[in-house]
Amino acid sequence: MSDVRTRVKVCCMSSADEVRTAISAGVDALGFVSAMPSGPGPIDEALIAELVASVPPPVSCFLLTCATDAPTIAAQVVRCGVDVVQLVDAVPAAAYAELRALLPHRVRLVQVIHVVDAASIDEALAAAPHVDAVLLDSGNPRLAVKELGGTGRVHDWSLSRAIVERSPVPVFLAGGLRAENVAEAVRAVRPFGVDVCSGVRTDGRLDAGKLRRFIDAV
């Protein structure tokens, strides 16, 4: 095993209490979900900006957006004050360079790839050179109402491992992770980091005990 520490990102932050709980547990990054076609955790941008302003460095703040055009995404990022934008849907190839031009230099780009089948490997490797990291999730953007994350489902980790082995940028793993399976996931995929939402919640709220067990398992 590598001695490089696997990073932990907790998504779907919804309150100051959740932010404090996650930071106290020692997470590396927090995810804030803006408006989505489906899935858990979206909150108003004004609340995202308020919560992000309370987060001390070096904890990173990710804005999850389903927007696909660069001006809309850039405006969201500026309003929310985050340092990472997580693109949960596919964007036009030209959008990456446009985002780089529109956003402050400190803002990093993370492209979500929903691992559905072997074609997802090619999709990830095509996006990777244009972003700072890739995040592998278990949604399905091919549905009439797109699933863009927060499904609580595990996908085929062998496909994720193939992406990790070939990606020129760091890869985060998401999708159905919890304390009971995250160690196996890390061994199987060897991601740079893991991302969790429902796996550390009880009745929709961040559960400090579940989060601690998750981090210990990682």
What's the Cα radius of gyration? 16 Å
Stretches where pLDDT is under 50 for at least 5 consecutive residues are none
Helicity range: 25-40%
Q: Which structural category do the helix and sheet elements fall into? A: alpha/beta
Overview of the molecule:
Pathway: Amino-acid biosynthesis; L-tryptophan biosynthesis; L-tryptophan from chorismate: step 3/5. This is N-(5'-phosphoribosyl)anthranilate isomerase. Keywords: Amino-acid biosynthesis, Aromatic amino acid biosynthesis, Isomerase, Tryptophan biosynthesis. Belongs to the TrpF family. Helix 5 (119-127) runs parallel beside helix 6 (157-166). The protein is globular, with a radius of gyration of 16 Å. The model has no long low-confidence stretch (mean pLDDT 92). The protein has one domain (7-217): Aldolase class I (TIM Barrel, Alpha-Beta Barrel), CATH 3.20.20. A hairpin with a 2-residue loop joins strand 9 and strand 10. It has 218 residues and is of the alpha/beta class. The protein has helices spanning 16-25, 45-52, 70-80, 93-102, 119-127, 157-166, 182-189, 208-217, and strands at 7-10, 29-33, 60-65, 84-87, 108-114, 133-137, 171-173, 193-196, 201-202, 205-206.
